Amino acid sequence: MAPGTWGHFRALQGRRICDSNSFRWHDGAMKINETFSYDGATVESVYAIITDQAFRAEACAEQGASDYSVTVEPNTGGGKTVTVIRIMPADMPDFIKKLTGDTVKVKQTEEWAGPDAGGHRNANVKVKIIGQPAEMNGTAVIVNAGDNASFTLDGEVKVSIPFIGKKIEPEVAKAILGSLRAEVALGTKKLS
Protein backbone atom coordinates (compact mmCIF):
# COMPACT_ATOMS: atom_id res chain seq x y z
CA MET A 1 0.00 0.00 0.00
CA ALA A 2 1.32 3.39 -0.96
CA PRO A 3 1.71 5.90 1.90
CA GLY A 4 -1.04 8.50 1.90
CA THR A 5 -3.62 6.18 0.32
CA TRP A 6 -6.82 4.95 1.90
CA GLY A 7 -5.40 1.44 2.27
CA HIS A 8 -2.26 2.80 3.92
CA PHE A 9 -4.39 4.87 6.29
CA ARG A 10 -6.40 1.77 7.24
CA ALA A 11 -3.16 -0.10 7.91
CA LEU A 12 -2.01 2.77 10.13
CA GLN A 13 -5.32 2.61 11.97
CA GLY A 14 -4.65 -1.03 12.74
CA ARG A 15 -1.31 -0.05 14.28
CA ARG A 16 -2.98 2.53 16.52
CA ILE A 17 -1.15 5.40 14.82
CA CYS A 18 -4.50 6.95 13.99
CA ASP A 19 -5.88 9.22 16.68
CA SER A 20 -9.67 8.99 16.69
CA ASN A 21 -9.76 12.64 17.75
CA SER A 22 -7.91 13.77 14.60
CA PHE A 23 -11.15 14.44 12.76
CA ARG A 24 -14.65 14.89 14.07
CA TRP A 25 -17.95 16.60 13.48
CA HIS A 26 -18.30 19.93 15.26
CA ASP A 27 -21.13 22.42 14.69
CA GLY A 28 -22.17 20.54 11.55
CA ALA A 29 -18.71 20.66 9.96
CA MET A 30 -15.98 18.01 9.54
CA LYS A 31 -13.00 19.31 11.53
CA ILE A 32 -9.39 18.13 11.31
CA ASN A 33 -6.97 18.69 14.18
CA GLU A 34 -3.72 16.83 14.52
CA THR A 35 -0.42 17.65 16.20
CA PHE A 36 2.96 16.08 15.44
CA SER A 37 6.23 16.30 17.35
CA TYR A 38 9.55 16.67 15.57
CA ASP A 39 11.87 15.37 18.30
CA GLY A 40 15.06 17.41 18.72
CA ALA A 41 14.07 19.84 15.95
CA THR A 42 13.58 23.59 16.03
CA VAL A 43 10.77 25.63 14.50
CA GLU A 44 13.15 26.92 11.84
CA SER A 45 14.49 23.46 10.92
CA VAL A 46 10.94 22.13 10.45
CA TYR A 47 9.96 25.24 8.51
CA ALA A 48 13.08 24.88 6.33
CA ILE A 49 12.29 21.29 5.39
CA ILE A 50 8.57 21.79 4.70
CA THR A 51 9.33 24.79 2.52
CA ASP A 52 12.08 22.95 0.62
CA GLN A 53 11.02 22.20 -2.95
CA ALA A 54 13.14 19.03 -3.24
CA PHE A 55 11.77 17.62 0.03
CA ARG A 56 8.16 18.26 -0.99
CA ALA A 57 8.78 16.62 -4.38
CA GLU A 58 10.31 13.61 -2.64
CA ALA A 59 7.27 13.39 -0.36
CA CYS A 60 4.96 13.36 -3.41
CA ALA A 61 6.97 10.54 -4.99
CA GLU A 62 7.05 8.54 -1.74
CA GLN A 63 3.26 8.80 -1.45
CA GLY A 64 2.73 7.33 -4.91
CA ALA A 65 1.83 10.47 -6.88
CA SER A 66 1.83 9.60 -10.59
CA ASP A 67 2.55 13.23 -11.49
CA TYR A 68 3.35 16.28 -9.38
CA SER A 69 4.70 19.80 -9.37
CA VAL A 70 6.01 21.77 -6.43
CA THR A 71 6.68 25.50 -6.29
CA VAL A 72 8.08 27.46 -3.37
CA GLU A 73 8.14 31.25 -3.64
CA PRO A 74 8.92 34.03 -1.18
CA ASN A 75 5.89 36.04 -0.07
CA THR A 76 5.47 39.31 1.77
CA GLY A 77 6.33 39.34 5.45
CA GLY A 78 9.30 36.97 5.41
CA GLY A 79 7.44 33.76 4.62
CA LYS A 80 7.03 31.43 1.68
CA THR A 81 4.14 30.14 -0.39
CA VAL A 82 4.27 26.41 -1.07
CA THR A 83 2.06 25.03 -3.85
CA VAL A 84 1.90 21.29 -4.45
CA ILE A 85 -0.19 19.83 -7.27
CA ARG A 86 -0.24 16.04 -7.47
CA ILE A 87 -2.19 13.26 -9.09
CA MET A 88 -2.87 10.48 -6.61
CA PRO A 89 -4.61 7.12 -6.84
CA ALA A 90 -8.21 7.47 -5.67
CA ASP A 91 -7.71 4.74 -3.08
CA MET A 92 -11.07 5.34 -1.39
CA PRO A 93 -14.29 3.42 -0.92
CA ASP A 94 -16.06 2.45 -4.15
CA PHE A 95 -18.94 4.89 -3.70
CA ILE A 96 -16.43 7.75 -3.86
CA LYS A 97 -14.38 6.29 -6.71
CA LYS A 98 -17.56 6.29 -8.79
CA LEU A 99 -17.47 10.09 -8.51
CA THR A 100 -13.73 10.69 -8.80
CA GLY A 101 -12.48 7.97 -11.11
CA ASP A 102 -9.25 6.08 -10.48
CA THR A 103 -7.17 9.17 -9.68
CA VAL A 104 -7.64 12.56 -8.07
CA LYS A 105 -5.74 15.76 -8.77
CA VAL A 106 -5.05 17.65 -5.57
CA LYS A 107 -3.80 21.21 -5.17
CA GLN A 108 -2.39 22.17 -1.78
CA THR A 109 -1.41 25.75 -1.03
CA GLU A 110 0.34 26.86 2.14
CA GLU A 111 0.87 30.59 2.80
CA TRP A 112 3.59 30.65 5.47
CA ALA A 113 4.19 33.87 7.41
CA GLY A 114 7.47 35.06 8.82
CA PRO A 115 8.26 34.14 12.43
CA ASP A 116 6.12 35.84 15.07
CA ALA A 117 7.50 37.44 18.25
CA GLY A 118 7.77 34.00 19.88
CA GLY A 119 9.59 32.48 16.89
CA HIS A 120 6.55 30.45 15.79
CA ARG A 121 5.50 29.99 12.17
CA ASN A 122 1.87 30.08 10.94
CA ALA A 123 0.28 29.29 7.60
CA ASN A 124 -3.08 29.41 5.92
CA VAL A 125 -3.60 26.04 4.24
CA LYS A 126 -5.97 25.07 1.46
CA VAL A 127 -6.33 21.61 -0.05
CA LYS A 128 -8.58 21.38 -3.12
CA ILE A 129 -9.51 18.30 -5.13
CA ILE A 130 -9.44 19.75 -8.63
CA GLY A 131 -12.61 19.09 -10.59
CA GLN A 132 -14.52 18.00 -7.49
CA PRO A 133 -16.46 20.08 -4.96
CA ALA A 134 -14.17 19.01 -2.11
CA GLU A 135 -11.71 21.10 -0.13
CA MET A 136 -10.12 21.72 3.23
CA ASN A 137 -9.37 25.19 4.57
CA GLY A 138 -7.35 25.62 7.70
CA THR A 139 -4.20 26.72 9.45
CA ALA A 140 -0.88 25.16 10.32
CA VAL A 141 1.42 26.26 13.10
CA ILE A 142 4.94 25.26 14.10
CA VAL A 143 5.88 26.07 17.70
CA ASN A 144 8.68 25.29 20.11
CA ALA A 145 7.75 22.53 22.54
CA GLY A 146 10.66 22.16 24.93
CA ASP A 147 13.52 20.49 23.04
CA ASN A 148 11.21 19.68 20.14
CA ALA A 149 9.13 21.44 17.52
CA SER A 150 5.41 20.83 17.33
CA PHE A 151 3.42 21.02 14.08
CA THR A 152 -0.38 21.34 14.24
CA LEU A 153 -2.92 21.31 11.42
CA ASP A 154 -6.40 22.65 12.14
CA GLY A 155 -8.91 22.61 9.32
CA GLU A 156 -12.43 22.16 8.06
CA VAL A 157 -13.32 19.75 5.25
CA LYS A 158 -16.23 20.59 2.98
CA VAL A 159 -17.72 18.46 0.19
CA SER A 160 -20.50 20.38 -1.55
CA ILE A 161 -22.60 17.54 -2.97
CA PRO A 162 -26.23 17.47 -1.88
CA PHE A 163 -27.29 14.48 0.22
CA ILE A 164 -23.94 12.63 0.18
CA GLY A 165 -21.35 15.35 0.85
CA LYS A 166 -21.40 14.67 4.59
CA LYS A 167 -20.71 10.96 3.93
CA ILE A 168 -17.69 11.82 1.79
CA GLU A 169 -16.15 14.42 4.12
CA PRO A 170 -14.72 11.87 6.61
CA GLU A 171 -13.06 10.01 3.72
CA VAL A 172 -11.47 13.22 2.44
CA ALA A 173 -10.31 14.02 5.99
CA LYS A 174 -8.74 10.56 6.29
CA ALA A 175 -6.91 10.99 2.97
CA ILE A 176 -5.58 14.43 3.96
CA LEU A 177 -4.38 13.15 7.32
CA GLY A 178 -2.86 10.05 5.75
CA SER A 179 -0.86 12.22 3.36
CA LEU A 180 0.21 14.56 6.15
CA ARG A 181 1.30 11.67 8.38
CA ALA A 182 3.43 10.21 5.59
CA GLU A 183 5.05 13.60 4.95
CA VAL A 184 5.73 14.18 8.65
CA ALA A 185 7.27 10.69 8.94
CA LEU A 186 9.61 11.49 6.05
CA GLY A 187 10.45 14.91 7.51
CA THR A 188 11.15 13.44 10.93
CA LYS A 189 13.46 10.88 9.35
CA LYS A 190 15.32 13.58 7.39
CA LEU A 191 15.74 15.78 10.49
CA SER A 192 17.00 13.00 12.76
Describe the overall structure:
The chain has one domain: Alpha-D-Glucose-1,6-Bisphosphate, Chain A, domain 4 (2-Layer Sandwich). Helices cover 32% and strands 40% of the residues. It has helices at 6-14, 43-50, 53-62, 94-100, 165-191, and strands at residues 23-26, 29-38, 67-74, 80-89, 103-112, 121-130, 134-145, 148-159. A hairpin with a 2-residue loop joins strand 1 (23-26) and strand 2 (29-38). Helix 3 (53-62) crosses helix 5 (165-191). The longest helix is centred in the last third of the chain and has 27 residues, at 165-191.
Quick overview of this protein structure:
The chain has 192 residues and is α+β, with helices and mostly antiparallel strands. It is 32% helix and 40% strand.
Per CATH, the class reads Alpha Beta
Strand runs, count: 8
Strand content: 35-45%
- Give the low-pLDDT segments: 1-20
Number of separate helices: 5
Output the structural class: alpha+beta
Q: In CATH, what is the homologous superfamily?
A: START domain
Q: What is the succession of H and E elements?
A: HEEHHEEHEEEEH
Taking the sheet with the most strands, its summary is: 8 strands, antiparallel
- Nearest-angstrom radius of gyration? 16 Å
The tally of structural domains comes to: 1
Sheet with most strands: strand arrangement: 1-2-8-7-6-5-4-3
Percent helix range? 25-40%
From the N-terminal CA to the C-terminal CA, the straight-line distance is 25 Å
> From the coordinates shown, what is the CATH architecture?
2-Layer Sandwich
